[in-house]
Please model this.
Amino acid sequence: DTAVSQTPKYLVTQMGNDKSIKCEQNLGHDTMYWYKQDSKKFLKIMFSYNNKELIINETVPNRFSPKSPDKAHLNLHINSLELGDSAVYFCASSQGGQGRNEQFFGPGTRLTVL
Amino acid sequence: AQTVTQSQPEMSVQEAETVTLSCTYDTSENNYYLFWYKQPPSRQMILVIRQEAYKQQNATENRFSVNFQKAAKSFSLKISDSQLGDTAMYFCAWRGRSGGSNYKLTFGKGTLLTVNP
Model:
């Protein structure tokens, strides 16, 4: 029973296209995140949502638009894909903003832009 | 802004031996949390251990323990009796308690640990 799931796991697309990555968690958490892991494995926060409200937008280009239809879902839509968008994107969730609460990560989506 | 530094890009250890991974961080906050995450070749991010900054006692989880030195802003991970399954990228991470810093993890660049048979 997957706690945090992402679809698709792999995404290969052409420059200029628009694509979406979906994330769902079944842990009953109220906070969800998107992280980007670049080719050097560096992980950086992109967005945080708490109770469907945007809390953090970490200087991400506005081609990236997260959407949280409910507390269990946080989708990431990317417009006009660029070569530099190639990365692994991780969704995560936790209960609230309490710092001690573990963030549970999804399996990641490897996006390759050609 | 908070920063997390892992100065060892790669390390290797023989099976059954002990290895220590280093992590330092910079923050002006007094209360925060520190984590070690493991990322094996499967890509899955797995929490290894966490430390609450207001607790002086070092956290331990089975073969994993930390050496937390708050004044020095140092948070190292010790893995005892290393196993082949410990081969992974290890990330040190910081999280605040309020003001937005509690809604994200700030990661170091990672240390690739290889356990040799």
Remarks:
- The radius of gyration of chain B is 14 Å.
- Chain B touches chain A at residues 32-33, 39, 42-45, 47, 50, 52, 89, 91, 95-98, 100, 102-107, 109-110 (CB under 8 Å).
- The first strand of chain B starts at residue 3 and ends at 5.
